[in-house]
Structures are given as structure tokens and as C-alpha cells.
């Protein structure tokens, strides 16, 4: 087994200049007309296998951003007697983030979910790897993960856990009742937000309540102090909306379309970030945040660990992503052809901004090529 791993690592190093080099593009992005479909399938499988063997990416933010003044995100309320105004929704669409108040999640549930999440980092290295097998995009990862390790605890540097909406594991010893309820509560809020944004932007909601048309990932990461810079483990994964409950006063760094911003949501609010999939669906009307919001380092006064619990509402891997444009009106009788074309043009009033693309191929590229400082949607923009 060790010999096989060594040979594979040697092959990876020889082909791509070492494990830390950026992986090659997947075949769908660089297909050759002279390559047969059988060769394409074999190349795609090899490419994904090699990408899967890469060490998990770790995001480290430059220290200069930690001193940026924090702003309070726009507030959107979900109270029964309050409907978000058009101006507020327009402001949200131009920023890519906001904070949600008057929601159904209780502070007690959030604290209980955080306690259960913190207990994950106290597990031994052996249990982390056996309870959370690597089944990308779900599972456990560590930036200093060593397949040849002796099973001792690795200290928790750069670790992350990615769970489904049911917080499923391979062990009957773990109980995540609060974390599971918390995750499903965030998922419901996320679906409500998707519906609200789709109506305000004028495109049909492609998700609805159909569980086969979306999936959720609870992404739990630990922020570690390193040269006065916040470090969060894990890569970047495409999503529709991301949600993070604000348990205590804590700043977050966000990479929006307009650049890096530092935000400080209200305690007990939910920080909502609009993702790349929502931007494509809206045909570019919605601005987005790239990746998850990055929290600050732990509280040095009481030794509290600083973790982020981010719920990503995303898509099944077999999905295809494309702009959702307004439907053409039904043709009317006794209407001249020129008048009909002019009316349709006025109703649509827009052209496609993005090409359609395969979600799984895009997700693999975004996560493994570590394109956090380059907009991965640029390759699909229609100029």
C-alpha cells in the first residue's frame, strides 16, 4: 500500500511539478477535436483522481485586511408584518451580502450546535479520518494530513468538516442532534432567501422545495492565529447562498465583486452571502461573494477556539448551470411580425451574460485550482 502511494505521488510530482502545483484544466475545458470519447473519459477520470490527491487548500488572508474598518451589512427582516422593500433588495443585489433578522433560529440552538461542532476538533486523528471518510465534497480534511501518520492527534491546524444536511457520519458514537436541527433551520432560511431573491430579480426559482434540485453542506472550519493573520481551512465551493449565524460579536472578511470588505453583523443575526450560482441564474444582476466568510482568530483572553459554521445551499453534482431569462410571451393573433419582435425585445431586455456549464466540472476546478483571488466565472462570461 505504501509503495502504491509512493508511486502515485511520484507520478503526480513528475506530471505536474509537485503536489502544491496548480492542477491541469479538466478535459471539458480543453477538449481536442481529435480525441476520442473513450480517451476523453479516461483523461477526465485521471484528472479528477490526481486533483483529489492534492492536499486541501488553505486560505490565508494578508494581515493588512485585518485592520480594515468593519461595516454593518444591510438588514433584511423576515418578520410576518414586514416585507423587504424594493430599494433594500436592490441594495442587497449590488453588494452580494446582508444580515437577516427576525428569523426562526434561537440563540440557545446556535450555542448548542457550536458546542457539538467544537467537540469534533477534540477527536483523535484516527477517529476524524474513520468517522468522516473523504467523499468529496463531504468529509474531513486537514492541511497537514499525512496518510503515513501514526494516528496521533495532529493539533487541529487547518482542519475542516463538511457534513450533509443530516450531519451524517460513519459512527454511531457521535450525536449531533442540535447541529442537525441548526443545519436544517439554516437550510430552510436559505431556501426562503433564494425564493425572495428570484422574485425580486425577475427570474423563476429553479429550486423551490424539491430536495432533488438542491443540496446543502454544513462547512465547519477552525480559524488559527498565524502571524496575526486569520487562517481558515478548506477550499472554495460553488453555492447559491451561504448562511452564518452570528453567535457573538465577530468581524468577517468577505471577497465580493467590488473587492475585500470587513463586516460586523449584529449578534443573533444571520450573515447571508450570495454565491456564484445565484449570480449566473440572475444573468449577472446579483453581485456575489467568492467563498465563505472568513472569521477572525480565537479569543486569546479566554482561550476560546474560533470556528466558522457555514451552511452552503448548493446544487447536486449532476446539475447544469445557466442564466434563467424571462420567458417569451405567448404570440398574439393579428399582430404584425415586426411589432411582435419589438415587444419581445422590450420584455426580455437582456442578453445572456454567461454560457451554460457543467456544475461538477466547475466545482472541481474551483475547489482544486484554488482560484480564490481570480473570479472563476470569468471563463464562462460572454463578451
Automatic annotation (TrEMBL):
> Which Gene3D superfamilies does this UniProt record tie to the protein?
B-lactam Antibiotic, Isopenicillin N Synthase, Chain (2.60.120.330)
Keyword annotations: Dioxygenase, Oxidoreductase
Q: Where is this region: Disordered?
A: 15-36, 57-76, 326-345
The answer to keyword Protein biosynthesis applying to this record is no
Organism listed in the record: Senna tora
State the Gene Ontology terms under molecular function.
Answer: dioxygenase activity
Can you give the residue ranges of the Isopenicillin N synthase-like Fe(2+) 2OG dioxygenase domain? 253-308
| Name of the featured protein | Gibberellin 2-beta-dioxygenase 1
InterPro entries attached here? Answer: IPNS-like_FE2OG_OXY (IPR044861), IPNS-like_sf (IPR027443)
Amino acid at each position: 500500500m505504501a509503495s502504491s502511494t509512493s508511486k502515485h505521488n511520484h507520478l503526480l510530482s513528475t506530471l505536474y511539478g509537485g503536489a502544491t502545483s496548480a492542477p491541469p484544466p479538466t478535459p471539458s475545458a480543453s477538449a481536442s477535436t481529435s480525441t476520442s470519447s473513450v480517451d476523453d473519459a479516461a483523461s477526465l477520470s485521471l484528472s479528477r483522481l490526481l486533483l483529489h490527491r492534492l492536499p486541501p487548500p488553505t486560505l490565508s488572508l494578508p494581515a493588512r485586511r485585518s485592520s480594515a474598518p468593519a461595516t454593518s451589512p444591510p438588514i433584511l427582516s423576515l418578520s410576518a408584518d414586514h416585507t423587504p422593500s424594493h430599494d433594500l433588495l436592490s441594495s442587497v443585489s449590488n453588494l452580494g451580502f446582508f444580515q437577516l433578522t427576525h428569523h426562526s433560529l434561537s440563540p440557545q440552538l446556535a450555542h448548542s450546535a457550536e458546542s457539538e461542532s467544537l467537540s469534533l476538533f477534540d477527536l483523535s486523528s484516527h477517529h476524524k479520518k474513520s468517522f468522516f471518510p473523504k467523499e468529496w465534497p463531504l468529509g474531513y480534511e486537514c492541511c497537514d494530513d499525512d496518510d503515513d501518520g501514526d494516528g496521533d492527534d495532529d493539533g487541529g491546524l487547518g482542519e475542516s468538516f463538511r457534513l450533509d444536511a443530516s450531519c451524517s457520519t460513519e459512527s454511531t458514537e457521535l450525536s449531533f442532534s442540535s447541529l442537525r436541527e441548526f443545519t436544517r433551520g439554516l437550510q430552510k432560511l436559505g431556501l426562503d432567501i433564494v425564493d425572495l431573491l428570484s422574485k425580486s430579480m425577475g427570474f423563476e426559482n429553479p429550486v423551490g422545495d424539491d430536495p432533488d434540485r438542491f443540496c446543502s453542506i454544513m462547512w465547519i472550519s477552525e480559524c488559527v492565529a498565524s502571524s496575526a493573520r486569520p487562517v481558515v481551512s478548506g477550499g472554495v465551493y460553488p453555492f447559491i447562498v451561504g448562511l452564518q449565524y452570528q453567535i457573538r460579536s465577530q468581524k468577517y472578511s468577505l471577497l465580493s465583486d467590488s473587492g475585500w470588505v470587513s463586516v460586523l453583523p449584529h449578534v443573533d443575526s444571520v450573515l447571508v452571502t450570495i454565491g456564484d450560482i445565484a449570480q449566473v441564474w440572475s444573468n449577472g444582476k446579483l453581485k456575489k461573494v467568492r467563498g465563505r466568510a472568513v472569521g477572525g482568530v480565537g479569543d486569546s483572553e479566554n482561550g476560546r477556539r474560533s470556528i466558522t459554521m457555514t451552511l452552503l445551499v448548493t446544487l447536486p453534482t449532476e446539475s447544469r448551470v445557466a442564466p434563467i431569462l424571462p420567458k417569451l410571451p405567448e404570440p398574439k393573433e393579428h399582430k404584425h411580425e415586426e411589432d411582435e419582435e419589438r415587444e419581445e425585445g422590450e420584455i426580455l431586455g437582456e442578453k445572456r451574460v454567461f454560457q451554460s456549464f457543467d456544475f461538477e466540472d466547475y466545482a472541481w476546478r474551483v475547489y482544486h485550482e484554488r482560484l480564490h483571488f481570480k473570479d472563476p466565472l470569468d471563463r464562462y462570461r460572454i463578451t
